[in-house]
Amino acid sequence: MARVRIEADYIDLDDPMLVEGLPGAGLVGKIAADHLARGLDTTYYGSVYCDGLPSIAVYQGEDSTLRPPVRLYAAESEDLLVLRSDIPVSPSSAPDFASCLTDWIIDNGVLPLYLSGLGEQKEGAPNLYGVSTAGGEALLEEAGIVPPADGGLVSGPTGALLSRAEFSNVDSVGLIIECDGQFPDPEAARVLLDAGIAPLTGIDVDTEALTEQAEEIRAARERLARQMGEADDASSEAQPLRMFQ
Length: 245
Known about the structure:
The protein is an alpha/beta fold. 35% of the residues lie in helices and 24% in strands. The relative contact order is 0.18.
């Protein structure tokens, strides 16, 4: 049965915001959501058992407890929920997943913030844009987040969630950040947190660690490029690195 099962019903939330962190382009949503959940010392709040999610169990280091791959974490004092996922949601399964999660959002008076990466070339700090459904536009205006300059679309599971919110006339906000479309982009996730999530939720977390990760990843990619350039013909065959879309 498709549902969200609350594991910590002692936590009292009053019309909370939800930050969605499904894997996508540049892994920006997942990086930002995971960092936010750790920074706020959140509590494991709920299990997501929506149709379309694979039936797998996840274990973590130094912990024997098995958990589902998609979970909700709560920061009670901040009236905030964070959706964390260890798996991508396949495009074919996204409509069922979006319908299930949106029904729960409506029933529980939750305001969702959906996160998406715009994989393209960028110079300097990545640009952040906002889109919305129903009454979400007022939140973007209050936070000073501008709409995209050009038309486009949001695909994959996050696109399905935004589509379902629009169909159901649910207040929601979508944050779109320019990012590296092939590699994890913690710098884009940092901007997403500082310039998007913080003004919308009123919650700040230290993002210095994400800046350090960006520098480490950049150095690793430069080393990889040099190694590929120095390799002989016998080792020149490569498989593309595909990120979650």
